[in-house]
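Dear colleague,

Thank you for sharing your sequence with our group. We've completed the structure prediction you requested, and as agreed, I am returning the results in plain text so they can be pasted directly into your records. Please verify that the sequence below matches your submission; if there's any discrepancy, let me know and we will rerun it promptly.
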Amino acid sequence: MKTQNKIPTGKVERAMKLVGTGARIGGNYLKYYTRKAITGDDNRDQLHEDNAEDIYASLSELKGSALKVAQMLSMDKNLLPRAYTDKFAMSQYSAPPMSGPLVVKTFSRSTGKSPLELFDTFETKSAAAASIGQVHRATLGDKQLAVKVQYPGVGDSIRSDLKLVKPVANAMFGLPEKEMAKYFAEVEEKLMEETDYDLELRRSMEISESCGHLPGVLFPRYYPEFSGDKVLVMDWLPGKHLKEFLAENPAQEIKTRVAQRLWDFYEYQLHTLRAIHADPHPGNFLFQEDGTVGVIDFGCIKEVPEDFYFQYFPLLLPEIQENAEIIDKLLGYIEILFPTDGEETRNELRDAFMQMTKLLSRPFASETFHFTNAYLDEIYALGEKIASIPEVRKPTQSRGSRHALYVNRTYFGIYSMMADLNANIVTKPGSWREQLLAHWEPAMV
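Please find the predicted structure tokens below.
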């Protein structure tokens, strides 16, 4: 794979890279319309393939938040043609890596020492490369280590990158400025956290310790003494990413075991710790032949505020869904409905939101649930239907709590992995169901 000796860090340099990509996309459209005029062929598959290739090539060289946007889009399989999602999925763990000399230079600047001053061996060729950094293998005595090195300039370019991406997102989703501002504020905050390796180190150690009792879920040990502001050192975990794991055709029993452990891991984080691993793409997990799941990246953690927890998650429960008065209160709290809304708008939004909520909460309505691609298709089809509602397509004001953004993305990511595993698992709510009902019991009388 081609390596990079330099990553563009200046605003002008990064902007020009995207401008050049735009020019290539324009050329792709010109070729498409020329072919259509000559042959009458209206098939856009080649156009999508060419555009996806050019966009990914550009974003993968820029790294950072620009590539992270591609990674996020790859998880939204209903938003883009398959050519884009398949190509963008590469950003999860196989982006073009930094060259060996640039890795050593970045490592030395962060830790004050070269890799071979700290480790017995260090492989300058990366084992995996994603949006914020890349991973290298190292050894120290009998320890097998993973060394994550952050790309130069990633943290400094986030705000300017998002300004460049915002017009593209606006064109794709047609969001008003106020809603865009709220969305991008949450994205910017999370991306800034992902570049803070000191914060990631602390969170990794805390959550690994808190979740260490969960059966079949494995976490690496972290080494603060070898880490730096752009370097994170941990144990090397064995296992394969989801695509590689599934390619070996594991028995359904093993796939179900993997899925149950992933599900239990997320349920415990959300309802006990109130903080979730909010980047559930396949590149952040390693699956072993016996069904053990390794979790290797805590760069993106969403801490769930107490008030939001008790205003949002009761909507998953049938008892709450049947209480119109509480539903209206909750939809007001999470900024779906406003007192200024007319009756027609309130009814339309309430009905649409609850249709989607009941569909998404289906796994919690029985003891077990079988996740399939057909279930995901049902979710996406309803999403497209709701998107046609005027107040959803072109909202008159910003709707939805900013805290819901990463919570929703997390569960869409989990559902997608469950479907890939064709998993029939135990999903019935545990004690969190009772605590949510107890919180709202006085209002249910």
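Summary note from our side: Residues 11-92+154-191 form one domain.

Kind regards,
the structure core
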